[in-house]
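Narrative of accomplishments. A recurring question from our advisory board has been how the design workflow behaves on a single, concrete structure rather than in aggregate. To address it, we present the structure tokens for one chain from the evaluation set, followed by the sequence designed for it. No filtering or post-editing was applied between the two.
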């Protein structure tokens, strides 16, 4: 095999790999479900790093990247956080919780920054699912955001946005449905 043929074969293999990994985004979106029950299996740091990396690459206005994360694995801290929400059982049962904050000192427009953080969280949820990791986005804890900041001892200019509970899911059927597009689009013409 000459060098031209070798480059051609390698190029085709790379293109094939890219196509296999990038063409099923809609499938991943449709398959992902909120997972509230986790097995005892630990989440390794490499997998966690991939999930965080996906969040890091979310779009943000002026590329300000206002998201900040605190990783919580410690049972005592999880229990303290769990006391701040009626969904505490989820926080306690998840091997890892990512606490997501907005760094107000990096903010240029609060609404745009909150939207960016939503994209960041969605990236992490989808990546977790693609890696076989279950996740759920918890927001009810926001009612006690000052207490969460105190528990985690974060900078005063960080504002709590969400908790993402992560772990390997207990195997069970999870269903979901969505409204038809006709109900969601004004002046539907598609």
């Amino acid at each position: 095999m000459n060098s031209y043929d070798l480059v051609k074969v390698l190029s085709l293999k790379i293109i094939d790999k890219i196509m296999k990994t990038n063409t099923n985004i809609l499938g991943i979106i449709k398959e992902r479900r909120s997972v509230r029950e986790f097995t005892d299996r630990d989440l390794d740091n490499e997998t966690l790093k991939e999930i965080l990396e996906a969040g890091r690459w979310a779009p943000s206005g002026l590329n300000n990247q206002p998201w900040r994360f605190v990783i919580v694995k410690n049972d005592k801290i999880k229990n303290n956080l769990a006391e701040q929400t009626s969904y505490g059982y989820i926080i306690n049962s998840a091997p890892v919780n990512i606490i997501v904050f907005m760094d107000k000192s990096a903010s240029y427009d609060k609404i745009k920054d909150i939207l960016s953080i939503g994209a960041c969280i969605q990236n992490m949820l989808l990546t977790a699912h693609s890696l076989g990791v279950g996740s759920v986005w918890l927001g009810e804890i926001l009612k006690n955001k000052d207490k969460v900041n105190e528990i985690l001892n974060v900078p005063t200019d960080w504002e709590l946005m969400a908790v993402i509970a992560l772990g390997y899911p207990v195997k069970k059927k999870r269903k979901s449905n969505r409204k038809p597009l006709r109900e969601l689009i004004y002046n539907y013409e598609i």
